[in-house]
Amino acid sequence: MIIRELEMGEKIPYELLLLADPSKKIVEEYVNRGDCFIAECGNQVVGIYVLLPTRPKTVELVNVAVAVEHQGRGIGKFLVLDAINFAKTKGYKTIEIGTGNSSIGQLALYQKCGFRIVGVDFNFFIKHYTEEIFENGIQCRDMIRLSKDL
């Protein structure tokens, strides 16, 4: 598997990005401002992540997604670790990520990768998304904010 930056003019795999974030409008906003990386096995795109500079020396991992048929194989962790390494090489001092209160697997993954919970944006998904989101039988209401020093 290789991870490479999406080239200018290359088709953006929205079907993957929308697995992690159901709002195409919000995805389009950050994809156009951030750096998009794709993971490929052979000629097939199996994963994606987007890094978005937010403040001096701080970058946010705003989307991490793995194709459904490739989930459960460690690709998500590989993507997160690649994002951390890329951010380090670019001189960032902090990498942040946010996920839903109902995203139990993602919360575990990010903590295993060294992120620490630093806050909660209460009702984030209620305020910014028109449709209700449910995962693991839980309504996604709050954004759990995590951070890692590089």
Rg, rounded, reads 15 Å
- What's the helical proportion of residues? 25-40%
Number of strands: 9
Assign an overall shape: globular
Give the low-pLDDT segments.
none
The number of distinct structural domains comes to 1
Quaternary class: single chain
CATH topology: Aminopeptidase
CATH class designation: Alpha Beta
State the fourth-level CATH superfamily: Gcn5-related N-acetyltransferase (GNAT)
Tally of contiguous helical segments? 5
Strand order of the largest sheet: 1-2-3-4-5-9-6
* Overall pLDDT: 95
What is the end-to-end distance? 25 Å
Strand content: 35-45%
Q: Which class best fits the helix and strand makeup?
A: alpha+beta
| Proper CATH architecture | 3-Layer(aba) Sandwich
Order of helices and strands: EHHEEEHEHEHEEE
Annotate the secondary structure layout.
Elements: E1 2-5, H1 14-20, H2 24-33, E2 35-41, E3 44-55, E4 58-66, H3 75-89, E5 94-100, H4 104-112, E6 116-121, H5 124-128, E7 134-135, E8 138-139, E9 143-149
Parallel strand pairs: 4-5
Antiparallel strand pairs: 1-2, 2-3, 3-4, 5-9, 6-9, 7-8
